[in-house]
Design brief:
Ribose operon repressor, transcription cis-regulatory region binding, repressor, Peripla_BP_I, 12 strands, alpha/beta, DNA-binding, 11 helices, 6-stranded mixed beta sheet
């Protein structure tokens, strides 16, 4: 025989209070004495009571659920963003529905429709398309993450400080004697590519280096994209050591695969710097030196910003999260050697 589900009446009886007092204590009402609240919470735990969030939502107009749409759940960076958002939502006793658009605008739109049907209280979105013209289509409070968000100055958004990150990476390369790195970047359709290259250009000009001399190879933001881009670079005529700064760690690890495929060594023949800080970079051989984005912090901060949006306290601006260097073994130190152009 199925056991009866505990009710608020069971909690009230065990705590020795009225049903209304028990309900207000569990709802966090400020008028309840701390001693009474603790007694009610202990009673709820003892009888195994769980609040009916659907009923609470019907009374409050809130569902207690948020949505998160990221472009690639298989990419460890985006998985880390999702984990940060999940943890922060759980702290607030809120559920988070996570969707992966797989870089497909049609899937993204389908996920947004699903979130509206689920009556989530708000959504965090990394738009697949950089041409996100109709922000009102969300029809609910939202916060943007990722590169596309910077185009919308009047919308709350959270993301990495790409300029700071690129300069951090280039300064480290210069300290190792790599003054003109080759760049592996994303597709021309992505705003992230433009931001990355703009930061490189500004840094180069400050150091009196002509940005036009830097070799740039496009690729997809995947292992295979980085591998193919690196193979194309290795097919070019070159002189001396090659240094590569990849726009994400997946591409950097793919580049390492291509180096081995051609019978070369990293970092003896080719130095590689990544960007993201995904955990797998610690287990490559050699370990991948990278600029780590604060993925988990971005997810948590985006949830906090979304809470403000829901409560009518919008930030309406960009929150830039600083990145940090993780120095491993994928960069050769040429600083004591005569300066050569990297290709």
């Amino acid at each position: 025989m199925r056991k009866r589900r505990p009710t608020i009446i069971d909690v009230a009886e065990r705590a020795g209070v009225s049903k209304s007092t028990a309900a207000r204590a569990l709802a966090g009402a400020e008028s309840i004495l701390d001693e009474t609240r603790e007694r009610v919470l202990a009673a709820a735990k003892a009888v195994g009571y769980e609040r009916n969030h659907l009923a609470v939502g019907m009374r409050s107009g809130r569902s207690g659920m948020l949505g998160l749409v990221i472009p690639d759940i298989t990419n460890p960076f985006w998985a880390d963003v999702a984990r940060g958002a999940l943890d922060r939502a759980a702290e607030a006793d809120v559920s988070l529905l996570v969707f992966s658009s797989d870089w497909d605008p049609a899937k993204e739109e389908s996920h947004l429709r699903a979130l509206r049907r689920a009556r989530v209280d708000g959504a965090i979105v990394n738009p697949v398309s950089d041409a996100l013209d109709d922000l009102d289509k969300f029809g609910l409070p939202f916060v943007l993450i990722g590169s596309s968000a910077e185009r919308f100055a009047d919308v709350s958004s959270v993301g990495s400080d790409i300029t700071q990150a690129v300069e951090l990476g280039l300064d480290h390369l210069v300290s190792k004697g790599h003054h003109a790195p080759t760049l592996i970047v994303g597709p021309k359709s992505r705003l992230a590519r433009t931001r990355f290259l703009n930061a490189v250009q500004r840094h180069s000009i400050k150091r009196d280096v002509d940005p036009a001399q830097l070799i740039v190879e496009d690729g997809e933001y995947t292992l295979e994209g980085g591998r193919l881009a690196m193979l194309r670079l290795l097919d070019r005529p070159r002189l001396g050591h090659i240094c590569v700064f990849a726009a994400n760690d997946m591409m950097a690890i793919g580049a390492m695969m291509a180096v081995r495929e051609r019978g070369l060594r990293c970092p003896e023949d080719v130095s590689i710097l990544g960007f993201d800080g995904i955990p797998s970079g610690a287990f490559t051989f050699p370990g991948l030196t990278t600029i780590a984005k604060p993925g988990r912090d971005i997810g948590a901060r985006a949830v906090e910003s979304l809470f403000d949006e829901i409560e009518g306290r919008p930030e309406h601006g960009r929150v830039y999260m600083p990145c940090r260097l993780i120095d491993r073994a994928s960069l050769a130190d040429l600083s004591r050697e005569p300066r050569k152009l990297a290709g």
